[in-house]
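Quick question, first post here. What does this chain look like in 3D?
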Amino acid sequence: MEAKYCKESRVVRTSRVFPNDVNSHNTLFGGRLMSDLDQVASISALRHCRKDCVTASTDSVDFLHAVRPTDAVCFESYVTWTGTSSMEVFVKIIAEDLKSGKRKIAATALLTFVALDQHKRPIPVPSVIPETKEERKLHETAPDRARMRKERKQESKEWAVYLTNNHPWD
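> Answer (accepted):
Ran it through. Tokens below.
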């Protein structure tokens, strides 16, 4: 399987922030941002493997600056690293004040997707080739994040046995 460059999976989406997109603080609702970042990340994952894939985890979402109704919000995503069947996707969210042109990193996120065959079983994906300084930094630090994801998932499985699925009123 031939490796692919990060840029081959790059997705850029820019949109306005409208009144129905904001919370009671008049800033972009976090849930809206998370939905949008999952959408662009899923396109990056599909572009990379050209197979069906699913979100395996949202590893992190870090809100760095508020996004206001006077801003445009730009989502940029690409595959940074791959395992056997998994892909780490980085999403950078940039807020741009539409009147001043000032831009700032509003949030960053990392998600993991798994490629699936027609029977919904994991299948191998191409490795990734980073080119830019940003891509290389994310790629070289990815194995540590992958290790932490595995540990966190194992911990979740261990404590999940203590959780109930009863109705809260029972």
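Residues 4-160 form a domain with the Thiol Ester Dehydrase; Chain A fold (CATH 3.10.129.10).
The chain is about 30% helix and 35% strand.
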